[in-house]
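Reference record
================
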Amino acid sequence: MRFSIRMFACAVGVSYALAAPVFANTVWNVSLWGSSRAVTVAIEHLAKEVERRSDGAFQMVTHFGEAISPARENIDGISLAAFEAAHICPSYHPGKTPALLALELPFLPFDDIQAAHKVALKSHSHPVIERELAQFNARVLQHVIAPRYEFMGRGEPPRVFEAWDGKRVRAPGAIGDGVRALGGRPTSVPAPEIYTSLERRLFDAAALPFSYTFASYRIHEVSDWYTFNMNLAIPSCVILVSLDAWADLTDAERALIEEINIEAYQLQFDALADADTAWIPEFDAAGLERVVYDPAILEEFKAKTAQPLWDEWIKRNGRRFPAEEYLNFILTEAAIANATDE
């Protein structure tokens, strides 16, 4: 039997059609706050690349500046199907997502943000987190990698721990527990409102991921000092996607997201490192005093303070989910992640 060129071309075309990824016509709206910055590099890369690699068939439209939802209400917007995906920080609504907030408990033993990232990825598929997010018809689409929490503020710098006594500090969620342990008085204010509140002296200091967030919201412009080695905690923010939107994806689209996320995470690590290189000298040049605590005294304080804070978190949440078991999971995974980073 003769096999013509035409038949060969048809056969190749059929074979390619079977092998090539199939993309549906999909458009997601993604609710974000603030402006494009180091912490949004990963979701911006994901949005750009899914569109490019799907030849425009899959689009994620990113809406910055709380354009389609206030930051605190993003998780409700997912639940109500107002949009498909959103950036959420559990500290903005600790009563709604207490399990997700566990990774922000003060003084968890993460050696660095790489270790914290590894643990976060493991935790997102833990049944406790899956059940909690399912209540909002959501799952994790992407981990938002962010560095340690430090403080920036006005007035006399807290050069010793005793100087924190009575200070009013923007420190939402579990971060607030760490501020109370220092002797301060925490308050919860969304990041976009910090500049004006600090300028008006509604509080004395703010806790934010260091250094990019302080720069992004220009907090250094209304501050006199910043802490450099407190390392209070590491943020546990995520990009959520509705379960319905995720279920509507093709297998090829889900695989594409997972593939791009790997690249996106590395780009975000690089962006955060670049932000430190750019902004820490700027803070110093602006005349802000850098507060560095004696490492031995700091470690002694953390050793004495951490366990009671963790125990209180377990007590508050033990009836809602197996809180102690979940925290032990985090501590075990942290030890593994720290060891593999060495």
Observations:
- The longest strand covers residues 26-31.
- The CA atoms of residues 112 and 338 lie 8 Å apart.
